[in-house]
Amino acid sequence: MAGQMRIVVTGAAGFLGSHLSDRLLAEGHEVVAVDNLITGHVRNIAHLMGNRAFRFLHHDVTEYIYLDGPVDAVLHFASPASPIDYLQIPIQTLKVGALGTHKALGLSRAKKARFLLASTSEVYGDPLVHPQPESYWGNVNPVGPSGCYDEAKRFAEAMTVAYRNFHGVETRIVRIFNTYGPRMRANDGRIVPSFISQALAGEPLTVFGDGSQTRSFCFVSDLVDGIYRLLLSDQADPCNIGNPSEMTVMQFAETIRRLTGTASTIVHKPLPVDDPRQRRPDITLAKAKLGWEPKVGLEEGLRATIDYFRALRG
Predict the structure, then answer these.
(1) Percentage above 70 pLDDT, the chain
(2) Is residue 70 classed exposed, middle or buried when 0-12, 13-18 and 19+ CB atoms within 10 A define those classes?
(3) 228-279 per-position pLDDT tens digit
(4) Taking residues 191-214, what's their average pLDDT?
(5) Strands (E), the chain
(6) Which of these, 3, 299, 302, 309, is most buried using a 10 Å CB contact count?
(7) Is the Cβ–Cβ distance between 150 and 97 less than 8 Å?
(8) In sequence order, what are the residues at sequence separation of 6 or more whose Cβ sits closer than 8 angstroms to the Cβ of residue 123?
(9) Are 249 and 190 in contact (CB under 8 A)?
(10) pLDDT tens digits, 147-168
């Protein structure tokens, strides 16, 4: 794949989709953004509306997607992606992973376009192998609180591989680990926006359990760079993209307190059901096949994210 491409991005008004659209436009490509705004927001793409290379289509991707003209790639990023969403809209979460992936793959097949699926580290569940390589099959509870998301993404991967094997569609699968940055929703229930929002409001930071569980955090520009490299690569099998630098939730809470200068205390609440004890990507494959590894340090990324949330508060 070379030169200018016409690329469809589903979920383009979301956190990741909007940053991905920025990068694709910066690389000289044309972007057709598709979103039904169920969890995305137009403010994330408002700055692109005057760009001639950008077109927004308000559409639910679980319905048939019709587009005039050629398409070179379809990047399927439409999906609720936070614990609050799974509880409030579980059926839509399952539908966009199943029906939405089917429709997006159908578009790729019709247009002879390359397809890239945004999958997730949640396909590994509460992992029994640490760190998690792509060869690990996972430890997932299909009827747990996040089962609708985990199984939707696992099904989406299976559907993608089936289209590759049966229909000959060129496919890529990225397994995305914890990512943060500007344009996250303040109330989406994930650790970065939750801690920052609580700190800026002077409220206690809510740590679930004793805070000894670990997480790793990848800044959004690093993640998008990995995805773009994967799109242009010949890596057809799933590929982890994330930051392998691991820390405990308590360490992270203290970092947020320091960087925001808040007087917020820390309160502990019971650990949610199926909350993973450890989550860290093995990025050996991404290094070898894509020449990729994260570059943005945690404090640098967090300062940019804190500034964004401060501006939102006004």
Answers:
(1) 99
(2) exposed
(3) 999 999 999 999 999 999 999 999 999 999 999 999 999 999 987 767 778 8
(4) 94
(5) 6-10, 30-35, 54-58, 73-76, 114-120, 171-176, 179-180, 205-208, 214-216, 218-219, 239-241, 246-248, 266-269
(6) 302
(7) no
(8) 138, 140, 150, 153, 154, 157, 175
(9) no
(10) 999 999 999 999 999 999 999 9
Domain extent listing, the chain: 6-180+219-243+277-295
Residue 121 identity: S
Q: Which residues of 197-233 are buried (b: 16+ CB within 10 A; e: fewer)?
A: bbbbeeeebebeeebebbbbbbbbbbbbbbbbbbbbb
Count how many residues are written for the chain.
314
Q: Which of 147, 152, 130, 177 is nearest to 274 (CA)?
A: 147
Collapsed DSSP state (helix, strand, coil) of residue 281: strand
Q: 6 forms bridges with which residues in the sheet?
A: 30
Domain topology for 6-180+219-243+277-295: Rossmann fold (3.40.50)
Residue with tokens 């308590």: 250
Task: Please confirm, yes or no, whether 149 is among the known catalytic residues.
Answer: yes
Query: What pLDDT is stored for residue 109 in this prediction?
Result: 98
Question: Average pLDDT for residues 108-130, to the nearest whole number?
Answer: 95
CA distance 145 to 299: 31
Distance from C-alpha of 124 to C-alpha of 139, rounded to nearest angstrom:
6
- With a cut of 70, say whether residue 119 has pLDDT above it: yes
Neighbours of 90 (CB within 10 A): 17
Pair of tokens at residue 228: 């773009």
The confidence score (pLDDT) of residue 65 equals 94
261 CB neighbour count, 10 Å cutoff:
10
Which of 86, 149, 180, 228 is catalytic? The answer is: 149
